[in-house]
Structure formats: structure tokens, C-alpha cells
């Protein structure tokens, strides 16, 4: 068993040999609150290459969104603090950049799509203004040019009658259309990396598929890296290349998307997969992982998942397992697979 | 929007009639006889009868009111018991009150909103505490105390402003009274702006604006500010009305011959038509200010639409 420092390389997808677009190294984020220090992210490592989609999976409070906000540089500091770690964007540590340097990256090189488009768009400004603002601020365009660009973008994300709707306000659009506008805003300056934080959670199932398809299509067109944050295993399957599962601020399993579904190597991942409702089990009680996610002020010793884990042993309560490279038959490395479980072998084999 | 405005103007008519009637009744119910008060020591029963007849003082309340209101609709506000036209009084005194109220309004809007924004942006820091204590001070201190102290310090000791009166015209004579009149509302505006600003700075759309890489100035000035001003504008609009009517003490302290002083004097002389006339005017201002607020509301927040 070897300990791997960085996230496992991508098994397939574009640009495998290129240097990573984004590399998160040993990132820690904590929040200083009145009750104490909440450790939201505790040593996360992952990489995203150009054209690659990384899905980050986890329950609320697992640190997936906080990691994304740290990458974006939109954490409120204080109360948040980044005591250690590096976030390398094209090899440069963004945490060492000045505020102004980071601002210029935001929106232009790294863009973010938020969950609830209605509250994430400004209610008192037209969508055309909010889209055009990207061009006016980052590209120095005039109002008129920016508006033309806004219409072009709305066309691109397939909003019908874009030219007629450019002066409408966010509340005049449907949920799906609003999320398209969020996507258009993120794509405006053709960034290299997009972080989508639960982009479809607030939408109807049929609209979810449309929005995900659109996102995937545009991502391929521009060969962008995509970090897709979600708790919805269904969304991930079609779009992602690889998955990182987070629990209590740590990555507990990484795997190419198909292999994770086929043979999870962490009891938590297994629990997540088992809790998807299935038609062939209609009438039976739904599976749920027992217990609640840990309080981030008091993360349990050892493996953070141990109080909820059906396989927990004494060692799980004392030793924190590291993300280990998985090996298959005859000690062959399983490419791209890692698990932070003392008993990953047993879990992997059912 | 046009229809909305027309409907609101029509709605104002019954409000106006109802309120004037109410005020008329209240003045009618005041104890004492205006004619006797007018004659003082030399009572003349014959003259008293003539005057009582001229001012319909022995008619029933409803008839008296009818005489009054039908005059108002003909554009005649009536006369005082000394024979002065009430329209003249209004024309002479109203501009002074208006100037005072608008000066105060300017102070409370500009200083209040700026203090609120700064306080919100520096939350928990030194400046925030300074604003907090200053607003607490302004809210707690009575107007006449603040007025007299400022008069003494700035007017008498340092001779920076006129002490009282309106000889120096606008702005010199109105700066100090304007500040005093604005004091309490200014403090409320500052606090309201602060709360509302903090709320919108925390909102999702401001987070989006930051994620778009907009400069901080733009995030605050364009994205946070417009949303947080919606409740502030409401308060300001409502307050314009009370600044006009509530200037009685300030006008007294600074000896400004405005509506407030006249109103106080007329109440003590039981001059019903004057009181009703002035109050009607103030109510009109209230109604107009309210309408302006409602229209502004829709301009600031496109989610609000009036049919």
C-alpha cells in the first residue's frame, strides 16, 4: 500500500500529458466561530486537467463547496482562514497572489456557477446588464458592445428570442432559463476552469438533464476543465471523468466514474450508492446511512466516518486513514483509484 | 403605472375629506370660546353676535363643516377671526417650512446613508462603533436640548451660524435648524441603511458579483447598494411628511416663522379654520410623498409592478 500525495491522475479524457490546470495541495480551511474552530476542509488534494471533469461528491457540510469557494477566492476571511495548503492555477499558487491579481482571474480564467440562480442573480439589474458587465469590466467594452455580446451569449445557451429578452429581469425567466443565464455568465470570457456548485439541484428533473447536457457540450467546445460539485449521483454518471468523494473535509475516495459505481472502495461511498432509490426494490424500505455527518467543531478521532460505519474496528477510532493507492490482482496499481479506509480491500471485494 | 397613479390620486380624495372633518370636529370640541378669547377684557355682546354670525359659530357642526369645505373646493381657505386670509398665511409661511424640511431631508439622506454604508462595510470595527454611539446619542437627546446647545456653541460662541431667525436666508439661516430637525431621522436612516446593507453584502448575488471578478467598488456601489436602498427610500419618503409637520419645536427654538409655529398659535387661539387648513396642507404633502415612494419603489425594484 503506497500513500499518494496528490490526487490520482485522470484515467482518460483530453490532455492527459499536459500540466494540470488546477492543483489543490493539502488544503485546509477553518472557520473561527464563537463556539470554536470549525474545520471545514482538512487536507484536500485534487487536480483538474484541461478538458477534464472532476465531480466532487458529498453531503452538505462535507467541505465540497468550501473547497470550491477557496479556489474561487470568495470565502469570507474572516471568519474563514486557510492555515495551510496551496492552490496552484497553471503552476502558480493563487493563495500567494495579491487581491487584485486574484480578482482578474475570477470570472476571466476561473468562473463559477451557483446552485440557486434566482438568488444568485441580482434582482434589480437586467440579465443583459449582468452578462454585459463581464465584458465591460474585464475587457473594457462599451455598454453597447457589451449588450451585443450579452445577446450573443444568451443565444449560445439557447435562450429563445435572446435579443428581445436581454432587458428582462431575472424573475421574468423560468428556473431553467435562469440557470442558463448563470452558465452564460460563467462562459462569457471563455475561462479555462469552471466550478459548478450543484448547478441543477434547484431545477426540475427534465430541466436538470437539459442544463447538464448544455454544460457538458459547452465544456467540450471550449476544452475547459470542470469541477462539478454535487450530492446527486445520478447527475455525475454521464458527465464526469473522475470522482472525488468527500466526507468531513477530507477526500475519502477517488476513482474513475464507472469504477466507483461498479466497485466502491470506501464504506461511505457504498452507503451513498445504496441509498439511491431503485425501481426493482419498490416497496422496500429505503437504505439510509445511519447517523448524521459529524459536527465540524468536533470531528471524531481516527476515521471521521467511524461512528456511522458498519465495518468500524478499533483501529478506525484511533488512526486516521490516508488516501491510499488501490491495487488489484498481483499488486497491480488500479489507475486513478484511491481510498481512505483501513479496510478498502474488504470493501472493494464486497 | 399611469393608471396606478390616477387611482391613488382618486383614493386620496375621501381620505382628505375624512381627515379634514375629523380635525374640524376636534377643534370644535376644544373647550373655550374663540370670540371671547379674541375680545379679551373688553367684551362687547353686540359685536360678539355679529362675529358669531359671520363665522357661523352657532350653526350645527355639520353645517359649519359644510361652509368650510365648500369654500376649500372653491379655492377659499377662509379667514382668521381677525380677518386675515388663511391663503395669505400659508403663502407667507409655507416656503419657510418647506426650505427647512428640504434642508433637513438633504442632511438625513446624505449623512444618514453614507454613515450607514460606512458602518456596514466596517462592521465591528472602530468606525462602526463611532456611528453606533453617535446614532444612540442623536436618538436619545431631545430636539430642544440639541437645538439650544448647538445655538449656543456654534451660533453664540463661535459665531459660525446665525443664532436664530431667517435674515440670512437660505442656506445660512437654515443649516443649523435643518441639522437639528434631521438629527433623529438621520440616526434611524444610518441604522436602517447599515442593517440593510449588511444583509445584501451577505447575499448570493453579491457573492456572484465577487465571483465575476468585479472590483470591490462596483460590487458595493452597483450590486449591494441598490438593493439595500429599497427600505431606506421608503423611510425617507414617509419622513418627508413628518419633517414638515414635526418642525414645531425646531421652528420655535430657532424662531423661524413657519407653519409649525402658526399651527401651535392657532390651536391655542381656537382658530378652527386655520388649524384645519394647515393640517389639510400637511396631509396633502403626506399623501403626495407616499405616492412618490410607491412609484420610486417600482423604479428601484423591478419585481414590483403596479397594475
From TrEMBL, chain A:
Classification via InterPro entries: AAA+_ATPase (IPR003593), ABC_Ni/Peptide_Import (IPR050388), ABC_transporter-like_ATP-bd (IPR003439), ABC_transporter-like_CS (IPR017871), Oligopep_ABC_C (IPR013563), P-loop_NTPase (IPR027417)
Mode of membrane association: Peripheral membrane protein
Keyword ATP-binding found: yes
Gene Ontology BP annotations: peptide transport
A Gene Ontology term for the protein's cellular component: plasma membrane
GO molecular function ontology, one term from the record: ATP binding
Location in or out of the cell: Cell membrane
Record Pfam families: ABC_tran, oligo_HPY
Family named by the database record: Belongs to the ABC transporter superfamily.
Record carries keyword RNA-binding: no
Entry keyword set: ATP-binding, Cell membrane, Membrane, Nucleotide-binding, Transport
Ranges where the ABC transporter domain occurs: 24-273
Lineage: Bacteria, Bacillati, Actinomycetota, Actinomycetes, Kitasatosporales
The protein, known as: ABC transporter ATP-binding protein
Lineage top rank: taxon: Bacteria
UniProtKB/TrEMBL annotation, chain B:
GO cellular component, one term: plasma membrane
Chief localization: membrane
Domain ABC transmembrane type-1: 94-297
Cell compartment(s), UniProt: Cell membrane
A single BP term in Gene Ontology: transmembrane transport
Cleaved signal peptide residues: none
Transmembrane segments: 12-30, 100-118, 130-150, 170-190, 228-249, 274-300
Family: Belongs to the binding-protein-dependent transport system permease family.
Name of the protein this chain belongs to: ABC transporter permease
Organism: Streptomyces guryensis
